[in-house]
Structure formats: structure tokens, C-alpha cells
């Protein structure tokens, strides 16, 4: 992801020594994303991703590693965390918590096809079934307290009209409109840059660092908001492909479908707030990618304006 922390070669060599991965063949920063510092690493033993966590408290990370390992063991194409000789997955590098995971093949897609959307729907259905026996629990880091703190900061810089609309959506979410729906450990951030394809074949899903206990329909809405919306409108062909494949994999209740527009509003608000905050309070970094908050605001507006049209994508 964005490169905030430079890793000198000597520090890298010291960090890698307990893994016995062989000589380093290539090491380069990854531009995509906004939260952590990520590097591609290639050694004589294979290809990996090195992540330095810039803000996530270390105590929250074992949940993410456990979930990745759990899913990978059940056939989900998720990265496998690597442990050093002492058994530790999380270590320190350049003053940051850091970890290595296996690098999966494929590349992200900028303009997904209905077939690729269907693959994402099947994958989410499989993931939501696979976590039935995953016991660790973690509350979302993007819940009510985070929304309140983010809105307070935005109040000093955002436009009044935008703040007014945000306030309405925050008030809606304060009522917990998705409470009681089926849920469990979810990815929570399955945008197109967190899925890897070769052609129409889905090769992997990455970046589980926002994983938490959430309603499954919220996880699904996060994906649809990115994979199926363009220019402020929901592409029905892509949405029907994704939702149809999901529904063919995991049985969906009537209550989940009824709550679908509310789930889209929750997903849109979460990323609208974080992107707007990042745009107005830019972080220092060598390669910092700021994503457009307007795309997520458009999801909220569409769900407010045409809830029945969006719900019909389940038909």
C-alpha cells in the first residue's frame, strides 16, 4: 500500500533472518491503498508481502492473522501468515509492527466484468460459510465511536452541506438498523484492489486488517459499493451477477434482503468518512494514494434515492 516508512536494506536483512527464506531477489513498495506500508518481497524461497502497520494497535492484529490462516486452511484463496523461528507472526521493523504473508498470484482489476463480480459473490458466500467455526471475536474499529470522532474532525474543514448529510446518515446508523441479522467474521474491505484475478479467474483476496464481527449483508454491501457502482449509479448487470452468485452459495434471509438499502448506506458512509478524512487531513508519505470520497457518497445517495431499485437486484 502507500509507502510511509522506508525500509533500509540492512534493516530488512535483519528482519528476514529468523525466517530462513533465502537471498532477497527483489524488494519494492506498493502504491495501492492508504493505511499501511506494504512491500513486495521476492526471495529464493518464494514471493511474499511485507506489511508495516502504521496505525493499527498490535493487539488487534492476531485476529486478522488467525482469520487468514483459518480461511486458507478451508480452501479460501487468502494469504498465509509466516511465523519466525520463535513462532511469532507479528514482529518489529523500523519501529513499526510488521508481518510477512505469502503473495498470491494475479492482479487487481480496474473495471470488473459481470463474471468477475460473480466470482466475488461466490467468494464472499464461501467465506461467510467458512467462518461458522471461527471462534475469535473482534468488534469493528469503524463503529459508532469512530464515526463520532471522525465527524468531529471533519467539522473543522468539510463543507456545511456535506456535514449535514453525514449527520443524517450517522444518526441512522446510531439506531443499528442491521442489528440481529446473520453475521460473523467478515473481510470488511473487499474493494477491487483487494482481490486478485487472472482473466476471469479469482486467484486471491487480500488485506484482512479491517476484519471484524459484522452482519454478512454489510460485508456484501461493501463489495457491491465498489464492484458494482460507476459514476454514481449501480450497474444492475454487475450487481445481479454478484448477488446471484452469493445467494447461490449461501442462503439469504428475507430480512437481509429487506435491509439491503440500509446496508449500502452503512457501507457507503463508512468509506465516505474515511476517504473524506484522508483527503482533508493528508498523511505524509513517499507514495500516498488518496481515494475519491465522492464515489462512496454516491452510494449513500443512491440508496437514499432508489432503495427499491437496489433491492430488486436480488431478484
Structural commentary:
By secondary structure, this protein is of the alpha+beta class. The chain contains eleven helices and eleven strands. The strands form four sheets. The chain has a five-stranded antiparallel beta sheet, covered by helices on one side. Strands 6-9 form a two-stranded antiparallel sheet. The chain has a two-stranded antiparallel sheet with strand order 7-8. Helix 4 crosses helix 9.
In short:
This protein has 315 residues and is α+β, with helices and mostly antiparallel strands. It is 43% helix and 16% strand.
Per-chain topology:
Layout: H1 9-16, E1 24-29, E2 37-43, E3 46-52, H2 61-73, E4 91-93, E5 96-102, H3 114-130, H4 144-154, H5 160-174, E6 183-186, E7 195-198, E8 201-205, E9 212-215, H6 216-227, E10 229-230, E11 233-234, H7 236-249, H8 254-258, H9 260-280, H10 293-305, H11 307-311
Antiparallel strand pairs: 1-2, 2-3, 3-5, 4-5, 6-9, 7-8, 10-11
Helix pairs in contact: 3-6, 3-7, 4-5, 4-9, 5-9, 6-9, 9-10
Which key terms come to mind for this protein?
315 residues, 16% strand, 11 helices, 11 strands, alpha+beta, 5-stranded antiparallel beta sheet, two-stranded antiparallel ribbon
Contiguous runs where pLDDT drops below 50 for at least 5 residues: none
The helix-strand sequence is HEEEHEEHHHEEEEHEEHHHHH
Indicate the proportion of strand residues.
15-25%
Number of DSSP helices?
11
Terminal Cα span: 37 Å
Tally of strands:
11
How big is the Rg? Answer: 19 Å
Work out the helicity level.
Answer: 40-55%
Q: Which structural class is indicated by helix and strand composition?
A: alpha+beta
Shape by Cα distribution: globular
Mean pLDDT: 95
Based on the structure, what is the oligomeric state of the protein chains?
Answer: single chain
Largest sheet: 5 strands, antiparallel
Strand arrangement across the biggest beta sheet: 1-2-3-5-4
